[in-house]
Amino acid sequence: MKYFASVVLSLLAVCVYSTFSTAAYPDKAITYTIPFGPGGQSDIEARRQQPLLEAALKQKIVVQYKPGGGGSVGWAELVQQKPNGYFMTGINIPHIILQPMARGNAGFATEDIVPVAFFQATPIGLAVLKDSPYKDLAAFIAHAQANPGAMTIGGSGTWSGHHVAHLQLGKMSGTEMTYIPSTGAADSVAQFLGGHVQALWANSSDLVQHADKIRILAYGTKKPFVGAPDVPTFESLGFPLYASIDRGVGLPPGTPVEIVKILEKAFLDIATDTEIQKRMIEEGYQPLAMGYEESKAYIADMVKQWEPIVKEFKKN
Amino acid sequence: MDLVIEGLLAVLIPANFLFLTVGVFTGILFGALPGLTATMGLALLIPLTFTMNPTAGLIMLAGIYVGAMYGDAIPAILINTPGSPAAIATTFDGFPLAQKGMAQHGLVAAAFASAYGSLVANIVLITAAPPLAVFSLKFGPPEYFWLGVFGLTIIASLSSGSMIKGFLAGAVGLLLSAVGMSPIGGDVRMTFGFPQLQAGIELIVALIGFFCLPEILSNVVGKRRATYAKDLVTPTLSVIGEVIVSLLKKPVLMLRSSAIGTIVGFAPGAGGNIASMVSYNEAARWDSNPEEFGKGTIKGVAASEAANSAMAPGSLIPLLTLGIPGSPPAAVILGALMLHGMRPGAELFTTYANVTYAFMMALLVAAFLVTFIGSFGSFLFSRIINIPSRFLAPAIIFMTVLGSYSIRNNMLDVWIMFFFGLVGFISNKLKFHPAPIVLGLILGPFVEEGLVKSMLTGKAAGGILPYMVFRPISLVLIGLSLMSILWPFFAQWRSNRRQNRTAGSGRGESQCD
């Protein structure tokens, strides 16, 4: 009887606690998982946010790493966590969309992740070395068309943003070019600077860093990229190609909307800070401030855009 | 030159010197605990450096990097567990030394050789970084492939007992390296339904499993020995001088090891993991008494540690001049530079020259601090193995679990570690050395990446084989690989001939002179 009573009491306590917990959220430390190794851009961004989030939420933010599988190990972990708002993981587009689509057994489904906000984008651009004979995208494509398969373009990963941009450009321009994936951005940049590939798909942050040695042919943005306003967009050159890596944060499936909203506000307040935006642009990023609803719609939109491409090229 | 002196003065400002010392201690700690890495130590301290001025922040990071390169030798020598993959070769002679009651010799040799390697590589970094960085870019996919193949040929001499067993173990290592996502194609292989295995088998987990656990099982549990080493160690001050002098008398060994470390370091992406093994291998090959290696000689420890410490400044060469990190810790340092608004490349040596030179001089001074801390720390560290097994063994097992979990926050890694421990225990009994397995695990992705990329690029260029072979660095590496694989046969022939000639005259040299 005593045992029964204590069980009932503790169950009651849990119920009361959980009804009140949303109101009091957050009342303990929040884990912020980075699904990549320490020192990467996702980590650096999280470290920049950490003190500001702590000030806004009045709780400790514990940053931890869960690297592997290009992020999928971390996201597979995220979707199995309790949806109570105390466990969040950095999310990246296109990774969270393309991995389940291309691999089938990534350990998570895109729609399982509840996006809180997206705060930073890294537009993807196509670059050649300064001494390359291709002065613009038209000359580049013309040469690639004349020599099918001989043009080698480096990039980071298979079924990554770079890879899909490569496939899209090939399809839109009707050319066959060879994509040479590397395991990371640093590797692919080194191969490119060493002349082992003729061109490179890369993130704006990497391109900005090597600006003095390279010529950027185009960026996959809708409007010219703020960090390099003179570089044309693919769209302005006749290829409606939009490619970027978007960084945000997500929660496990089933997280109450009230909790999502509290975190959304904290992240968006940081993302819209003009000083932080200014620094992001200097480092080669595009500041973003996309909330919960907008992020959901954006993800759904990108799923629609990429599904046919992955389906088409997955076959061969 | 003014900049060099200015940089040195910046490091010697008391506050900055304090940051450096704190950094070195932190680095030694992160290096020494398997599961905590130099990369993690650097990443953890980066937020701290936000609020510091860039010079002080970078000086501290330099301390961590250099300290960690020494720290990983401590568990390698004492408990046969490399603190990081770069210290695998340190166990080959370090652990036998400790077993002979000469742990202090090993620790001092590691500290001094680390500092020596670091010093040589730093001088190269300060004087010749730009041309070397340009050279490093010449490493394309074929060069990676052949470098990996060259690394694998070390198995031939690592497994002096039985080459078949060595290559079998190496093949198992290569197979294990194929678990998880393929580096280029992105296909998921051999995950057996565990999504966590997409990340592949973590090197540190395999190291702890294959090196540390079997030793505990066989030495402590199996033989029920009261202490971890056969002989207790009694540290004395004279050992420090003795070891340092005997290493100074081997300038060829020290310089060659440092040079190998520097070169492997600045080849982007190669990392220091194989530097120490290549260096150890060469040390054993060219030594007048190669049979001493593997049985506990400070020459072996020095060869490994000089190379892995030289690799740290080496990996900063392409970083500082081109913005391309040569190792994971270098990538974190790149992040720190960017956060302070300093873009690697020419700017770093003009606009921010003060900070850059202070950073490089900090690496240099840290090397001296490591010798100092390591030499005197050896009194404390070496006594660790005097602790009775009934306290030490559980403590080590606790650390192995913690270490294999913490590296990726993944429980599956702990089970994998235990599994490898059992496999390692059994295979040790069957006279399989774990080093070829781990070498296969390290080099597998390396070789695979180089091969697949070469094939893709070669196909686009019109011919795979000509693209892979007819390149100057490729040809050199192919030559080295052939030499390395044929060497054991040559050495066998030579020692047979020598034995015939000098039959009867025994050898009785001691370890330390």
The helix content of chain A, as a percent range, equals 40-55%
Structural class of chain B: mainly alpha
**Principal-axis shape of chain A:** globular
Distance between the termini of chain B: 38 Å
Largest interface: A-B, 54 and 59 residues
Derived structural class of chain A: alpha/beta
Q: What fraction strand of chain A?
A: 15-25%
**Overall geometry of chain B:** globular
Number of strands of chain B: 2
Rounded to the nearest angstrom, the distance between the terminal CA atoms of chain A is 67 Å
The major β-sheet of chain B equals:
2 strands, antiparallel
Average pLDDT figure of chain B: 87
Q: In oligomeric terms, what are we looking at?
A: heterodimer
Uncertain stretches of chain B:
505-513
Return the domain count of chain A: 2
Rg calculated over all Cα atoms of chain A: 22 Å
Order of helices and strands of chain A: HEHEHEHEHEHEHEHEEHHEH
SSE blueprint and pairings:
The complex is a heterodimer of chains A (316) and B (513).
Chain A: H1 2-24, E1 30-34, H2 41-57, E2 61-65, H3 72-78, E3 87-93, H4 95-103, E4 114-129, H5 137-146, E5 152-156, H6 161-173, E6 178-182, H7 185-193, E7 199-203, H8 204-209, E8 214-219, E9 244-251, H9 257-271, H10 274-282, E10 286-290, H11 292-314
Parallel strand pairs in A: 1-2, 1-3, 5-6, 5-7
Antiparallel strand pairs in A: 3-9, 4-7, 4-8, 4-9, 4-10
Helix pairs in contact in A: 2-9, 4-11
Chain B: H1 2-12, H2 14-32, H3 38-50, H4 54-71, H5 73-79, H6 88-99, H7 103-136, H8 141-158, H9 163-177, E1 180-181, E2 188-189, H10 203-222, H11 237-248, H12 251-266, H13 275-286, H14 298-322, H15 328-339, H16 346-349, H17 353-382, H18 389-406, H19 411-429, H20 434-461, H21 464-469, H22 472-501
Antiparallel strand pairs in B: 1-2
Helix pairs in contact in B: 1-17, 2-3, 2-4, 3-4, 3-15, 4-14, 4-15, 4-17, 5-6, 5-7, 6-7, 6-14, 7-11, 7-12, 7-14, 7-17, 8-9, 8-20, 8-22, 9-20, 10-18, 10-19, 10-20, 12-13, 12-14, 13-14, 18-19
